[in-house]
Design brief:
Layout lengths: L1 E27 L9 E17 L2 E18 L2 E18 L8 E17 L2 E27 L5 E27 L7 E19 L2 E16 L7 E14 L8 E17 L5 E29 L3 E30 L7 E18 L3 E16 L6 E14 L8 E17 L2 E30 L2 H6 L3 E5 L6 H7 L4 H7 L12 E5 L2
Antiparallel strand pairs: 1-6, 2-3, 3-4, 5-6, 7-12, 8-9, 9-10, 11-12, 13-18, 14-15, 15-16, 17-18, 19-20
Length: 517
């Protein structure tokens, strides 16, 4: 007799950590650019380059790419310039549960970025990076699911639900778009400022590939090639429709994808007439992809025989099961009131921002998700300043009902900003609207003893002979029909037949007859 066996792979969350890293560096303004008079706005994004698990720690390296829009002032009056650069970083986080076989997953978020003037030719740039670290261990077992050629062997099976991690990787794809400016706008001399953002992105697994659908928002401020013409700005929304190779993917898998804008360039291109009227973007999109397959597996959990002694060899196997996947949308509205009596709001140029999770609270049968939308509004003031910035933090809270949760329940939430807009109510007040998407996944951890091998030996005939051929038995607490049959070298079917039982259910205090096999 031989086992039928099955390989089972799973991924177990061992622990989570949050690490905040401050970056700080000084930068000299190039000679080709004008002096810094005032900081108007800053923006940046972070790219994760390497994550290495070591004994007792995780090493994270990446780069922050930033832009600083600043105001200049010379004999021609106020103007604007942009300074761009990057700051590499390394964060070593001590995590006791980490080792060289661990599989760390890191969500790297640039929570804050600010620039200050040291002098007219030097800037200090500071940022706060939040690294959300999950330490996973891969679980594997080669367990028995059935017995072949096992005549006379009683077998018991147990069904378990397992979420197998089929795909877990980081990947990159590129967005390339060309935006031709409107005919009523002057030609482009220099791009001062740009913001490229993903909105309303969905990822769907297909056969050996991923379908990515969504939008990319492009905003740019540029200098005209005409004298005495103020800075111009352009805004465009383009549809993303990409199919990315992903071997092993299929429509049956459950996908969890976290996408973010990475490194990129915004350049000027000529149109068909040879004029500089096209804004070209070429950006990386960084993807963190996990795909799960839900499986219901019947495994062999116990066995015995009235003719021989069988001792199953077992090992404990820990697994995770996805019990809930939900997508929620939270709509947020807030208002900003301009306090300055001297200055009014003339026009909103652009609003940009991001969404951040502040806390995830597990309750008995629900989860509270707390977060913040950070919004930045570029506007033209009534003063002689060419442009200014409003910063807003808009908190939100969302409650999702769940099945009963345990201490070991693993709640994973991936936020994304679907929509962000700002509209002037009057010259002193702005209404901001945001729509946040929350991808919520809840995993439960299970443990089970699986059979990996067995030892077969002759039966103890003296012990078997000492037992009565027919016995009356009073069911005790914890007894099962299987345990009673095993004890008396009988079968569950024979006990059910003799006692006219329709199923395996018995209760404490029941009186049954058992015939030795």
């Amino acid at each position: 007799m031989d086992f039928s066996k099955k390989d089972i792979h799973t991924s177990i969350l061992k622990t989570t950590r949050n690490s905040q890293l401050t970056i700080d560096d000084d930068f000299n303004i190039p000679d080709s650019k004008k002096d810094v008079e005032r900081i108007v706005a800053e923006t940046g994004n972070v790219t994760l380059e390497e994550v290495i698990a070591e004994e007792g720690r995780v090493k994270i390296t990446g780069t922050v790419y930033f832009k600083v829009l600043y105001e200049t002032n010379d004999e021609n009056g106020p103007d604007m310039e942009v300074y761009e650069n990057e700051i590499p970083f390394e964060d070593i986080v001590n995590i006791e549960e980490a080792n060289r076989t661990s599989r760390p997953e890191v969500r790297c978020v640039l929570e804050d970025l600010s620039a200050s003037i040291i002098n007219s030719r030097k800037l200090e740039v500071r940022g706060l990076i939040d690294n959300q670290i999950c330490i996973y261990e891969d679980g594997f077992t080669n367990c028995a699911t059935d017995l072949e050629n096992g005549n006379g062997i009683e077998c018991r099976h147990t069904d378990i639900n397992i979420s197998e991690t089929v795909i877990n990787k980081r990947d990159v794809f590129r967005i390339k778009e060309e935006i031709e400016i409107a005919q009523n706008k002057p030609n482009i001399k220099e791009i001062l400022w740009s913001d490229v953002a993903l909105r309303n992105v969905e990822v769907r697994p297909m056969k050996d590939k991923l379908a990515v659908r969504g939008e990319v928002e492009v905003f740019a401020i540029y200098k005209s090639d005409e004298e005495h013409v103020p800075s111009q700005y352009v805004f465009s929304v383009r549809t993303i429709e990409e199919e990315i190779e992903c071997m092993g993917a299929s429509e049956e898998l459950i996908a969890c994808a976290d996408l973010s804008i990475g490194k990129g360039d915004v350049n000027i291109k000529q149109d068909a007439d040879g004029e500089d009227r096209i804004i070209s973007i070429d950006y990386n999109v960084d993807m963190n992809i996990k795909m799960y397959e839900d499986k219901e597996i019947s495994i062999l959990s116990d066995m015995y025989s009235p003719q021989v002694e069988i001792e199953p060899e077992k090992e404990n196997f820990t697994y995770e099961n996805l019990v809930m996947k939900n997508t929620a949308q939270v709509k947020i509205t807030d208002r900003y009131k301009h306090d300055s009596e001297e200055e009014k709001l003339l026009q909103i140029c652009h609003v940009y921002g991001n969404v951040f999770l502040d806390d995830i609270k597990k309750n008995e049968s629900s989860v509270d998700i707390l977060g913040t939308v950070k919004a930045y509004i570029l506007y033209i003031p009534s003063s002689d300043r060419p442009m200014d910035l409003i910063e807003m933090d808009i908190p939100f809270e969302y409650n999702v009902d769940t099945a009963r949760l345990s201490e070991d329940s693993n709640v994973k939430v991936v936020p994304k900003l679907i929509r962000l807009s700002a509209a002037m109510i009057n010259s002193r007040e702005i209404e901001i609207k945001a729509e946040v998407g929350l991808e919520i996944m809840i995993f439960e951890t299970g443990n089970i003893d699986v059979i990996t091998d067995m030892t077969v030996s002759p039966i103890d005939y003296d012990r078997k002979a000492s037992m009565p051929g027919i016995a009356g038995y009073v069911v005790k607490k914890g007894d099962t029909l299987w345990s009673i049959a095993r004890k008396y070298y009988a079968t569950t079917e024979s006990i059910k037949k003799i006692n006219n039982l329709e199923n395996d259910e018995i209760n404490e205090g029941d009186r049954i007859i058992v015939v030795k096999g």
